[in-house]
Amino acid sequence: MADERTSPLRPRDPRRLGPYELLGRLGEGGMGTVYLARSAAGVLVAVKMVRADLAPDDAFRRRFRSEVARVRQVPPFCTAEILDADPDHEHPYLVVEYVDGPSLAQVVDERGPLTAANLHSVAIGVATALTAIHGAGIIHRDLKPRNVLLAPGSPKVIDFGIARAMESTTGHTQTDQMVGTVAYMAPERFGDDTSVLTPAADVFAWGAVVAYAGNGRTPFQADSPPATAARILTRPPDLGGLSGPLRDLVAHALEKDPADRPTARELLDLLVTGPQEIGPAAAALAHQPGLRVAAEEAQAATGYHTGRQLTALAPAGDLVGYDEDSIVTQPVSVPPAGPATPFSHDPHPRRPWVLPVAVALLVLAILAVGGIAVTFWPRGGDDPVVQTEPDVPPLMEDSLRQQRLWKAFYDPDERAGCSFSDGLVVRRETKGVYRCRGPADAEPADLQAQVGVRLLSPDSCASIWLRFRGNQGYQVRVCERNVYVGTHKNSDIEVLKTFPLDDAPIAVGAPPTTITASVDGTTLEVLRDGELVGTVPVQDPDIQGGRVALGIYTEQYAPVDGPYEVAFTDIKIWGINR
To answer: Which end of the chain is less enclosed by CB atoms within 10 A, N or C?
Structure first.
């Protein structure tokens, strides 16, 4: 009934949506939850239910209805077919074909690089899918191995969909997000806000996906996402495991300049009718007649166009699909189809777009110092995802290096206090908890707080309280080997979730580590230096809003006598507008 990608339904999950019986969870994204379901006819499908807080928004429902109509125009040529949707349901939802097969990422991780015939099958299948997607006027924006499922008959690309589902309708600025997976992002995606995204970004991702499938590693692989981004901007790809015409085509798809890349349709033409259609490619098509049919139908349906003039019409939002790593698409205008022509490998390609040196240096500087943070974290377990810091001024900001919003104070009864010494130092002589005196401003219930944390003595935990009012709130406790998220009511602290830091404990006396804690609706998320620590559902009816507080908490097994010390620097707080 359900495969290893499915987790059990939770107590608050519905058991039915319209005519669909929900069987388990396939994933969760920014717009909602994706379920494995069974239709009235007994067919397994994937159902995406939008978040409860979006359902009452009439403007959201109108956009949802419009975008569903758009994605239903994508023909099912190596893509997961959009089957049904109900924008007017109490909980709006979308139904997508359930693809029964492992992801390309899973296969390569478990078995290593693909054989030549299987590699060509993936190359043809993904090019077919992009031809269909671009032909419907959509840019995928997060093509990667996890979004390529190796289904019987032909590979299938998932997670293309709603373009503006999360766009704010209130008139307030919301957190600006750049959604994608760093290793598969084209150079132009690291430009400024004026950069225009075109289908060429998906073609670059195609090249990176095929290189990964053939090599077992990404073509710009480095030790960290920032280093990977730097290589994408400045270095040629590593294509050591590829050979022959396919290697040449992948190299062309990975050109730095989007104007120099082939279109998806040109990729497909060369793969099935050009010089590539020999040896392994011919074997792939011969053994997978469904793949050949899909490729031919995609060619027939789309005609021929360069696609180089496709321009984005609107900002991106969230997704449709069922991978936990939610993607975003953008609608594009499609020029009229023209006569089919072979793709030319011009030895002197035109370069109407040149990566600005200033932008490249700025991006590299940002990545190097973690300034106006482009931060990276894994979402769904294996792929780093990039998201920018909010582009609006914080509601509150304090360096915490001198008395300003937070105050120095010593409590002799508690034998604890707060002082300033290159940061807000919280000290407690005995085991227990202590909060510093800080601003009493009531912050928005949905907010993001970012602060530098240092642990100055063993068994000491830096504590951040969110929605804190009336001596109760949510507590994020950052310790040497664990991060704890819980509720704090009067003297009662209940841990909701423990996240071990076994792979990278926080050393006592080490430089500050940046902790970002966000609470949005019923989800609390914690990041450490831009990498996701974990998320926790938070639904306590007694904790609805309040201030942000800083303090100390000792490990449960700590000795009675200390001293215990932690320090905080550079706190920023933003509201989250939904």
So the answer is: N
Domain boundary among 388, 406, 422: 388
Spatial contact of 317 and 163, defined as CB atoms under 8 Å apart: yes
pTM over 0.85: no
Block residue for tokens 């620590």: 533
- Measured distance CA(111)–CA(107) in Å, rounded: 6
> At 415, phi and psi to the nearest 5?
55, 45
CA atoms within 13 A on the CB side of 359: 14
- Count of structural domains within the chain: 3
Q: Are residues 91 and 106 in the same domain?
A: no
What is the residue range of 164's domain?
102-388
* Residue 142 a catalytic site member: yes
Contact between 103 and 146 under an 8 Å Cβ cutoff? The reply is yes
Residue 63 predicted with pLDDT over 60: yes
171-187: burial string, b at 16+ Cβ within 10 Å, e else: eeebbebbbbbbbbbbb
pLDDT given for residue 287 in this prediction = 67
Measured in degrees and rounded to the nearest 5, phi and psi for residue 219 equal -70, -15
Cβ-proximal residues to 68 (8 Å cutoff; 6+ apart), any chain: 82, 85, 87, 94, 162, 320
Contact 477, 461 (CB under 8 A): yes
Indicate whether 297 and 417 sit together in one domain: no
Tell me which residue of 114, 126, 91, 99 sits closest to 18, measured CA to CA: 91
Q: Computed from CA positions of residues 184, 186, 192, 198, in that sequence, does the dihedral angle turn out positive or negative?
A: negative
Is residue 283 pLDDT above 70, yes or no? no
The DSSP secondary structure of 444-485, one letter per residue, reads -SSEEEEEEEEE-STTEEEEEEEEEETTEEEEEEE-SSEEEE
pLDDT at residue 168 is higher than 60? no
The one catalytic residue in 3, 53, 142, 542 is 142
Is the domain of 406 the same as that of 371?
no
Sheet (strand 32-38) strand order: 16-17, 20-28, 32-38, 44-50, 93-97, 82-86
* Residue burial 120-129, b: 16+ Cβ < 10 Å; e: rest: bbbbbbbbbb
Rounded to a whole number of angstroms, the distance between the first and last alpha carbons of the chain is: 36
End of a domain among 372, 388, 404?
Answer: 388
- Same domain membership, residue 464 and residue 423: yes
Q: What value does the mean pLDDT take over residues 520-535?
A: 89
Per-residue model confidence as pLDDT tens digits over 421-436: 989 999 999 999 999 9
Q: Which of 475, 458, 467, 476 is nearest to 526 (CA)?
A: 476
- Are 373 and 401 in a shared domain? no
Please give the sequence-ordered ranges of beta strands (E in DSSP) within 471-575, or none if there are none. 472-478, 482-489, 492-500, 513-520, 523-528, 531-537, 547-554, 561-575
Kindly state the average pLDDT of the residues 180-197. Answer: 79
Ramachandran area for residue 314 (φ above 0: left; ψ -120 to 50: alpha; else beta): beta
State how far the alpha carbon of 42 is from the alpha carbons of 1, 23, 80, 393, in Å: 11, 12, 18, 52
